[in-house]
Amino acid sequence: MHYDPTTPALTQFMMMLIRPDNLPIIGMLVLVLGFTFLGFKEARKNDELIRQGREDEVLRRMQE
Q1: Fewer Cβ atoms within 10 Å of its own Cβ: the N or the C terminal residue of the chain?
Q2: Backbone phi and psi for residue 3, each to the nearest 5 degrees, phi listed first
Q3: What is the pLDDT of residues 1-45, one digit of tens each?
Q4: Can you state the angle between helices 23-51 and 55-63, rounded to 10 degrees?
Q5: Domain boundaries, the chain
Q6: If we measure between CA atoms, which residue out of 4, 30, 6 comes closest to residue 17?
């Protein structure tokens, strides 16, 4: 890919992202963000159970 000042920046960025050597990095980024989202979602549920005084259910949910 050569530099062309008339190509919009977003187009250049997308062309750089889809190059074969960058695809595994994009995949890892998707996985990290997905599992981070799931972790925060579970933490939020556990915090709500603790706030309600149901600490014993937190461990039970984690062991299911």
Answers
A1: C
A2: -80, 125
A3: 566 778 898 898 888 888 999 999 999 999 999 999 999 999 999
A4: 140
A5: 23-63
A6: 30
